[in-house]
Amino acid sequence: MTKVAVLGATGYTGIELVRLLLLHPQVELSLVSSDSRRGEKLSDAHPHFWGISDLVFSAPDPGELPPGVELVFCALPHGSSAEIVRSLKEAGVRVIDLSADFRLKQPSKYQEWYQRTHPCPELLEEAVYGLPEIYPQQVKAAHLVANPGCYPTSVLLPLIPLARQGLLPEKGVVVDSKSGVSGAGRSPAQGFHFPECNESFKAYRVASHQHTPEMEQELSFNLGSKLNLIFTPHLVPVNRGIISTSYLLLNNEAVGEKELRNILVDFYGETGFVKLLKPGVFPETRWVKGANYCHINFRLDERTGTVVMVSALDNLVKGAAGQAVQNMNLMMGLPEKTGLTHSALVP
Amino acid sequence: MTKVAVLGATGYTGIELVRLLLLHPQVELSLVSSDSRRGEKLSDAHPHFWGISDLVFSAPDPGELPPGVELVFCALPHGSSAEIVRSLKEAGVRVIDLSADFRLKQPSKYQEWYQRTHPCPELLEEAVYGLPEIYPQQVKAAHLVANPGCYPTSVLLPLIPLARQGLLPEKGVVVDSKSGVSGAGRSPAQGFHFPECNESFKAYRVASHQHTPEMEQELSFNLGSKLNLIFTPHLVPVNRGIISTSYLLLNNEAVGEKELRNILVDFYGETGFVKLLKPGVFPETRWVKGANYCHINFRLDERTGTVVMVSALDNLVKGAAGQAVQNMNLMMGLPEKTGLTHSALVP
Amino acid sequence: MTKVAVLGATGYTGIELVRLLLLHPQVELSLVSSDSRRGEKLSDAHPHFWGISDLVFSAPDPGELPPGVELVFCALPHGSSAEIVRSLKEAGVRVIDLSADFRLKQPSKYQEWYQRTHPCPELLEEAVYGLPEIYPQQVKAAHLVANPGCYPTSVLLPLIPLARQGLLPEKGVVVDSKSGVSGAGRSPAQGFHFPECNESFKAYRVASHQHTPEMEQELSFNLGSKLNLIFTPHLVPVNRGIISTSYLLLNNEAVGEKELRNILVDFYGETGFVKLLKPGVFPETRWVKGANYCHINFRLDERTGTVVMVSALDNLVKGAAGQAVQNMNLMMGLPEKTGLTHSALVP
Amino acid sequence: MTKVAVLGATGYTGIELVRLLLLHPQVELSLVSSDSRRGEKLSDAHPHFWGISDLVFSAPDPGELPPGVELVFCALPHGSSAEIVRSLKEAGVRVIDLSADFRLKQPSKYQEWYQRTHPCPELLEEAVYGLPEIYPQQVKAAHLVANPGCYPTSVLLPLIPLARQGLLPEKGVVVDSKSGVSGAGRSPAQGFHFPECNESFKAYRVASHQHTPEMEQELSFNLGSKLNLIFTPHLVPVNRGIISTSYLLLNNEAVGEKELRNILVDFYGETGFVKLLKPGVFPETRWVKGANYCHINFRLDERTGTVVMVSALDNLVKGAAGQAVQNMNLMMGLPEKTGLTHSALVP
User: Fold this and answer.
1) Residue C150 designated active-site
2) So what's the pLDDT on residue B338?
3) Less Cβ around it within 10 Å: N or C end of chain B?
4) Is the pLDDT of residue A62 over 90?
């Protein structure tokens, strides 16, 4: 049994980590922390854990880790995560950081999109961008994994195989994403007050969302040249789920629907978490709700030569906590799918 | 008081027409029809009309119109509408048809996208495409108005002013739309069974939705050259509302955010149903739920040179029944906003 | 045109008052106030009023009323309303208070259930409990109307006719109510954060909700003897709507389903806002959403001798703002239904 | 590994059984059947099983069970289940029937409430009512378990401990239940079409729901005398979840809140699936969504002497498939919680 800890177990990402880790057959969840609830029982704060866990919240203090903890999940807010990650690293534990703090390789991009100076630029180089389907060897060896954002995971998984074939254009890729409300976190705010967002939907942070540079970084790296994309996120009144619809004019007109399908099948095979659906069946978020799968499909619109790529995942699972557990499996030498083979909760 | 009739008053569009016409101060709703419910009271079929209307469903027979009816709304299914429209025309009443049967000017396009031969091609030429902000004079004079589709209205209102300035590119316009479930009609089906679509969302009819040619026809006509667009609709689990997010690289790099804003303000002014929101405020469907307004806003993404245009309307009001009433107002010489000045129902 | 003002036009009740008053053909809305938004345009705070009203928020200062205002709606929080009501009364305007401050006749009950000393006990006697179907003459003559709570309206309308016939038992009446989330107000809080209450429901304030004494007061008064009831409210994840299900063993075994139906029909007739549905058709909140109707129906369970009474209304309309407008109509000598004859927004 | 089969794996109960059985560490799901989809892959009908199961639907023919199947779950419609259960029994396999066919001990009650003659009355005596917390020994020994209804489970679990203490009154128990829409099954119908039930709620089958006799049978049996209850179900627009609010005047005035709490704690302890929440914390359906727990709490209203008991469960898990798996565990000699220890999916 691998001993692990979750720092920040009161936000949605942290709660989801706890749920998944309590299901995991090879892991012992030794500590959960919360600044605001230290000393309280996990199951008092989150009654769905009654009867399942007797853990009590600790302070999120790297110095108080129980002996034997090998890996720590940091589910702390952006900005406040980096310092704690540094302490954990110094204490010799491996870290999976679910904040945005170590995803961008260039501190200047962090400054530009998060409007703050990066607190620990010296760790950026060793941080591995934790997309396990894309960087499996690097994740296995990593001591610090920057767990990707939910939107980027939904976009990168279907597009990186095309990028690696050089098929993405450098300009004009449009990504239109839609997300459930849990992606906005657990802090109450007017815009997420139930009657304000129920039965309504909208675009937000149009052409200015902070996940944009993360997608551009990874697509550019895998394409081998600098790519800019246009990204618009939308808020949909459901708890969980992301659909990303990407539009691309391929660089190579000779590549048709069949070739694209082959590229994706070759890349992902039939046994992992990324599923290319049958032709004509497009992803629905309910098929991945609570599960670690990413469903994808596409259509090549012959009238316009445009590939419309659609992907779906659960922003809290494959878009956050599930992907983190998948990364942990690789880091700990466990089979990649351990503890993650449950299906979505339908309906 | 203008006497009017609604044929097909059991579907969502028909019900909404009844709601709006009962509110209208200058109209007398003389007849509602339904094949399946003839002889039944409107308020037994739709208990929200108890105490508001004593109408009884007639058969949808053009020969049974009460004397004095000047205008008929046809809210019948696509395909079965055309024949009845012809009879109505022959009987000398003016018609607003809410089906798709008279929207496409070319019968071949109808054949291609609706997979049936057009039943009344001889009426296509005189049918006026009923976007009253775009074709006010034609609507005023019309005897047959083809009321636009919900998705097309949401896309055409923000884009036609740019088309008229020649700013739209002929290729590469991407339209990503999201709609509530009432857009799919009132007939039960597995995909719209509550637990199947609640808490889930998806893309559907990717690059193949039948509203595509209607948008292309109108954008091409106003642009003055043939335009193709890429259109993907999505289903969102709310009752009402559409958000369309359109992406366009302008033809003219000299046109900036300010010029675009001026074009839209000049076109729509401040007193109609189309509202350009303040800079930075993007439309939310709740602000137009139940109302005849279309809210729009855009951002010019300087990183990529792309205009991201966002529009919102209620698919049953400005996207169907409200627009039909607005057309009726013009046809009957009434002030355009008569009976349509109520606000959205918030929350 | 009657000039009126709305104090507190940023909460849900205030917003709904504005919506209804802007629809009202005999009213001019002269002033809206908000402490937090004074000086801002109404339509900037609530974009669904764009194009419909140019009002600017004033301070909620009774001294600043425009000349000619005859009636003021107070939609201020419980507790802070009473003082302002006193000032308004002194200024000679008629007041409809939508807070709970003047609903309970006994200051001691106010103290017991609201945990504060009543700030203006001297006004309690003249305040009329504003259920216009029950107290029409008193409302017409009133200078201060205490607009009833949403739950009490849903319970009192079906039960008072039975109370007046002496049919209610003094003990054992059970009222199980379910409400949409707008009933909890517009201030963000953890429990009303979208993902916390979406797709979930619950009982709350079990046997301790502050609307209990208001129901007991009115039922006891109309019954002529002291009645206690057991009341449990529940939170349902919709924006609007209340269903109250009341259980009563009649005092008189000779009264059957037919007699009960006659009592209700005699009391409410066929032309008002309270509708007894056809036998076997039970109320659904969608049929009253946005409208001022209250739908009721019941079944006498012969196995147990219990009457199960079900009622539905929109908590923001007949449960708050619509009822206030109805009271205003009576106070101003207008026909009772003026401005309130629109149907629900379905779907 | 115990080999099991699920007959009727396309309805919500069947799908949920598949989900849970695929998670179960001691079970091999050998067969799933469907009349309408025989020959099709499970994962084509239900894409959330892609990558998780390669099963193909068989016909629901008891003669085609794979060798070694020891237990069969019947998730077939009421009425059509009984004949197949008889065949399975004759074939020597143990059966858990999730229909209503074997829940009522008296064929006359079945006739009365289900309007059909019972097809296999000879099996009623041996059928064990499958509430494992109440009848553990009988379930362990059973060859035919009648899995309880969702509403009855929610009501019986909190009330049977009181019944066993003789505390329930024979008359006047009121049960007001609220359920999500999956309880109505998976077949499309007008009333469950998304826009017809979304954002709306209602009572239905008032004082006439077919789960009533099942509750009366079990409460009467455990009380030792005949009890009648008044039961009203309500439909709430969520996918999953039941809240039952029960109102009872205890037989014994000396029993206070503390004694009640002790009775429940003594009965259920701290390690099972039934959880008495802390004083003042009332159940929310989200805390049990997807999990096999039933959360309960109560308040003794001192003003009226009434106990208000509130319980929550997931109608598809503890109210159907999860309870069936729990029964299977007992029947197969496995620890009762095997495969059922996952938490709810929050949010």
Assistant:
1) yes
2) 98
3) N
4) no
Report whether pLDDT(C78) > 90.
no
Please give the backbone phi and psi of residue C157, each rounded to the nearest 5 degrees, phi first.
-60, -50
Decide: A319 and A12 in contact? Cβ < 8 Å: no
Phi, psi of A85, rounded to the nearest 5 degrees: -60, -45
| Residue of C306, C298, C264, C311 whose CA lies nearest to C172 | C306
Beta strands per DSSP E along D115-206:
128-129, 144-146, 173-179, 202-203
In a domain, A272, yes or no: yes
**Tens digit of pLDDT for each residue in C37-67?**
999 999 999 999 999 999 999 988 878 899 9
Structure confidence by residue, pLDDT tens digits, C155-194:
999 999 999 999 999 999 999 999 999 999 999 999 999 9
With vertex at residue D33, the alpha carbon angle to CA D31 and CA D37, rounded to the nearest 5 degrees, is 130
Cβ neighbours of residue D146 closer than 8 Å, sequence gap 6 or more: D97, D101, D102, D103, D127, D128, D129, D130
pLDDT of D62 over the 90 cut: no
What mean pLDDT do residues D243-247 have?
Answer: 98
Q: How many domains does chain D have?
A: 2
Residue pair D34/D9 in contact by the 8 Å Cβ criterion = yes
Do residues B308 and B247 lie in contact, with contact meaning Cβ atoms separated by under 8 Å? Answer: yes
Kindly indicate the confidence band of residue D22, based on its pLDDT and cuts at 50, 70 and 90. very high
Q: Grade residue B232 by pLDDT with cuts at 50, 70 and 90.
A: very high
> Is the confidence at residue B63, as pLDDT, over 90?
no
Q: What secondary structure, in 3-state letters, does B124-137 show?
A: CCCCEECCCCCCHH
ipTM of the complex: 0.96
Mutation target among B201, B229, B234 for the A interface, most CBs of A within 10 A? B201
The whole-number average pLDDT for the span A39-61 is 94
Q: Are residues D120 and D163 in the same domain?
A: no
Rounded to an integer, the average pLDDT of B87-96 is 95
pLDDT of residue C252: 86
What is the Cα–Cα distance from A115 to B180, expressed in whole angstroms?
A: 36
CA distance D21 to D14: 10
Angle between helices C322-331 and C12-23 (to 10 degrees): 50
C237: domain CATH number is 3.30.360.10
- C46: tokens are 């609530």
Give the CATH number for residue C87: 3.40.50.720
Domain assignment of residue C337, yes or no = no
* B105 and B155 co-located in one domain: no
Interchain contact, D344 vs A48, CB within 8 Å: yes
Closest CB to A201 among B172, B198, B241: B241
Res. A163 pLDDT band, cuts 50 70 90: very high
Report DSSP state, residue A127.
Answer: -
Question: Would you say residue A197 lies in a domain?
Answer: yes
Distance CA D204, CA C215 (A): 25
Domain that holds residue C262: 151-315
In the DSSP assignment, the letter for residue A253 is T
> What b/e readout covers A64-86, taking b as 16+ CB neighbours within 10 angstroms?
ebeeebbbbbbbbeebebbebbb
Residue B24, pLDDT score: 97
Residue A79: is its pLDDT beyond 90? no
Residues C218 and C81 in one domain: no
In a domain, A338, yes or no: no
> How far is Cα C283 from Cα C274, in angstroms, rounded to an integer?
12
B203's enclosing H/E stretch is strand B202-203
User: Which residues in chain A have Cβ-Cβ distances shorter than 8 Å to B304?
Assistant: 171-172, 207, 228-230
Residues D95, D179, single domain; the answer is: no
In one-letter notation, the amino acid at residue B136 is P
Taking CA–CA distances from C310, the nearest residue in chain D reads D203
Using a CB-CB cut-off of 8 Å, the residues of chain A touching C195 are 12, 180-182, 186, 192, 239
